[in-house]
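Example record used in the benchmark description.
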Amino acid sequence: MTIQILSERRVDGDLLERSVLVGDVPGILWMPSLDPAGSAPLILLGHPGGLDAQHPRLLARARRGAQDGFASAALELPGSGARPRLPALEEARAELRASIHAGEPVADATVDRLVLPLVDAAVPECIAAVDSLSAVPGLGGPVGYSGGNISLGVRLALADQRIAAAVLFAGSRIPRAIVEEAPAVHIPLHVLLQWDDIDNPRQAALDLFDAFGSPEKSLAANMGGHTGVPPHAGDEAARFFARHLGGALRAA
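Model output (structure tokens):
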């Protein structure tokens, strides 16, 4: 699959941000300044969808990764942003919101229809993106995954052996099928959990964490709601990737 560079700009003078198309999927690639002999590991940044709306948060994460010599990339999710809507997903999302608003339990079937088709569509796109981005000069080495949807991170870790480590955000609904697949995940994991995220049951995230087969896995639970992730959580995630992905030679 081809990668097209649509535009590029310098951020803070030393971080190169490129708007790209991977096939027909919009994305953003951030490259740190490198020594001529340097090669930056890539971190795929997961997000809830809508690249334009998510850009400030994604850029902040890319900046933090660049400090340690990592490149970062984010793809638009299927059905999000300017991509065509997925009617079945929209219906499932409406059912989820209606159940939450009514104070009723969310049916497993609703969670399955909300999450699993999205994961099924997004994982091949992520794999294709890693294929294409590996040809970009200055990129090389192991690949990490950081962010949510957590189910996408689990499935991608199973589907692509180039994913060497993952930071997973426990801020989305988790189908039972994903929990059943989790014992087959053996890469190092660092899971971020907001303890008071009222829309995403804490116990489901704890059950998923317990199910992972990884010999090295850590759980960082912080008080607060879905959007209350403390700044130091990003520093912990950065140290995790520095241990497991290494880094690149930076330009002086």
